[in-house]
Fold these 2 entries.
Entry 1:
Amino acid sequence: MRCAPSRYYLRTYGCQMNENDSERIAGMLESVGFSPTDSPEDADIILLNTCCVRRNAEDKVYGLIGQLKRLKDQNPDLILAVCGCMVQQEAELEVIQKDYPYVDLVFGTHNLHRLPELLDQVQSGRRRVIEVWDSEGEIVEGLPTKRQTGFQAWITVMYGCNNFCSYCIVPYVRGRERSRSRDSILEEVRSLVADGFCEFTLLGQNVNSYGRDLPDKYDFASLMRDVSRIPGVKRVRFTTSHPKDMSERLIDVIAEEDTICEHIHLPLQAGSNRILARMNRGYTRDDYLRLTDLIRAKIPEAAITTDLIVGFPGETRPDFEDTLDMVRRVRFDSAFTFAFSPRKGTPAAGMDEQVEHQERMDRLYELIETQNAISKERNLEMVGRVYELLVEGPSSKDSARYQGRTRTNKIVSFDPQGDLENGSSVWVRITRAKTWTLEGERVPDD
Ligand code: SAM
Ligand code: SF4
Ligand code: F3S
């Protein structure tokens, strides 16, 4: 029997969908009487919600599991749980089973909702419980969810991915695409609005395929329009769009609806047609340029951000230069940049012509430098102009200042001139811009 109050420490790796899963894990734990702690030393249960998209994500998890052995030795009653994408891979599950016998509980991405029951099994028998489903079941709705803030909410609208980009592990660990019903999504947003939330980010690995598995041809553009029109919704964001499926109708909806933010995250991955084909991305550089031209024509204020991989197998220097060329042509506001990381079981891991580690790193630094210069230029273009921010609280760099986010997803710090509630709107004129940061001063509301 557990003595109340018990505390949980939860560490999350990976994407926003994993963060959203962690909010459900936290919600379930709190609904059975746990309270959160920021310190693993104070916890009765430690959970690691893992990611395996690149090797270094996994290395971090193994590093932490290793360190936590000391706490287990000091307190044998401590429960150590590992869940999420990493344990959906057979090989890693085996490593945890064999090499980390002090891990008490392992569960996967498809049976997260079973946490209270699995925890009960661990506690009642003080035994090890490992339950990882290898295929997805029905979407489980209505799980308790502990949101990270009181005004911004992530709404996962679809699970899984059918795209099988040749480098990517996600379809193997997250299963096939499954869309939530329109009613459950709209109901969730309405009830969050009633609780004071005003900014919503709709999440999926490829939101543009939302609805393909639903009976009534209800698609992502329609969903965005319906969410954006719910009274009380101030801002709607979404991620991630796949360039091969982004429809003109969606661009029109973003342009037309006042509450939909002008920020489009559109992963390009590579600038060479040969590499894009080997990646199985389903578009060419010209397709991508046509799409970004259309976005800029219909939504002139739009910020476009991207994901890029360098050192994909077979990528030559000219291929890499095609990526740099695309970066210069599109002038992204910012980019997440990655060195290719071979993932066991994906086609790219077995391809010939793997690029040497050092070459991958050199290309990565060159790409980052190129993009950083453009990000800075883009930010400098904002100086002197006035933007609406949604207040996010004290600045992470200087607690005397506050920070807020523009509709285009840029963080701006400013002097609050008094108390401000998180989620309220203020207007600022941008006074200073660097590669990563913007500063502004308040101006009277319009
Ligand atoms: N579904 C999104 C899409 O298709 O754009 C992205 C999902 S993934 C979680 C986020 C990013 O990780 C990808 O866009 C890609 O740039 C990067 N990524 C995925 N697999 C990778 C790998 N094996 N090596 C390096 N980067 C990878
Ligand atoms: Fe991975 Fe491609 Fe699916 Fe994105 S679309 S999750 S990169 S397989
Ligand atoms: Fe990682 Fe899983 Fe997301 S592999 S990026 S946490 S879907």
Entry 2:
Amino acid sequence: MSLSSPRKVIFDTDPGVDDAMALYYALARPGMEMVGITTTFGNVSVEQAATNALYLTAIAKRNVAVTQGVKTPWVKPGEAPPDFIHGADGLGNLPSRQATTNRVDPRSSAQFIVDMARAHPGEITLVAVGPLGNLAAALMLEPALKTLLREVIIMGGTVLEPGNVSPVAEANIWNDPHAADKVFTAGWKLTMVGLDVTHQVIVPVALIQKIADQHRHIATDTLLHAVKFYADFYSGLYPHVAKIYGCFGHDVLAFIYLTNPELFTLQSGRIRVATEGIAQGQTMMNRRDSISYPQAGWGDAPDTHVCMQVQADGALQVFESTLMGPWLSA
Ligand code: BDR
Ligand code: CA
């Protein structure tokens, strides 16, 4: 992205290792103005998510507002966080943490999103990479939100690629399918960066090591520790990931789509989320717009732009060159 003016972004997140990668990519990328970080339950509890967002920004010496959002799914019962993927602390079980002094903003994440959208109408891009309860709550607080935000980009869902928590469901959508369906039917400019593309990009641990060697900084050392834990999980699950010793890029791809949309191939269509039953969490896409299906719920749903292919080498190059740049101060 070579933006002529800074792009205002709110990052809705559940850090989470790939969330941390995404955050540092966004902080490192020139032209990105991080208006705030809104946190949600997901990879960890919302309290831990906020703690991690505060920690990651503090050690990178960035002063960014951090809020705490929804603690549980909207309708379905919550589940235990996946400590075997991200660690019990969400950052690969860090052996210790430096003392930091930044504190959480007392507003709810939904209120913060609404406040910022009202203060900067048409300017803010909302990048959401966790379960979507904060977005659903913000829509309920301010029904005009869809016109107040510039666009929404989510990491979540899948169309053709198998799910990662069920045969058909991706984790963020599975974790709050009712909120997700509200987000897909809200009528804002919405782009979905799902498993169809995030499973095409494997971030090697060696790349994060190279970035840590370049900076010799607590922020990149912390990222390296977390990514090793995450890569152990993915390498244990997928032989082709083990060959590289890496992990899927998931959340970072949402920001790479924002900065480098030319790397992605998209398809547009209506998406609804299965909220109950065996397909719970599935993002169902109508890819045959020429047929007028008779069932209720499809005709009036707005289109979502869905990333179907990504140039993986290009995405990794953009990630590397951004994080190798001079974004950290001593
Ligand atoms: C998504 O689920 C979480 O575990 C990751 O942080 C990412 O947002 C991938 O399915
Ligand atoms: Ca996430």
